[in-house]
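sorry for the late reply, my laptop died twice this morning and i had to redo everyting from scratch. anyway the thing you sent over, i finally got around to it. pasting the sequence first so we're on the same page, its 132 residues, then the predicted structure underneath. double check i copied it right bc i was rushing
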Amino acid sequence: MNEAHVTVIGWAAADPTYVVTSGGVPFLSLRIGCTPRRYDRQTGEWADHETQFMNAVCRRALADNVQASQIGRGTPVIVTGRLRVRQYERDGQWRTAVDIEASTLGHDLTRGTAEFTPTRRSALTGQEPRAA
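ok and here's the structure:
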């Protein structure tokens, strides 16, 4: 397993795009932005650096759960997953896109509160969920 796994703390830069593929698989894409801040010792102030953008790609149950979680533009989020960097050509220019194939995605609870509602998966596993 020589893949790059990353955790990004940022905000939703746009509302998520949710679709169900022709094969019946839920798919959600969410643009994430993060702006690094550094302390400038000369001025004694914090300074924002260039904002970085990437796409969080969610599939199956994660896509359904993110869609149901009221994550929209401006929502503080944390995403963890496999890093994918790809190049593509558009209008005669090569571009680079950074994607995170998300294994988890949720609200950043250092910036607010959330209410958790567990999903029932007994139909998939044939087992009853554990009591809390």
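The longest strand covers residues 76-90.
thats about all i looked at so far, will dig more tmrw
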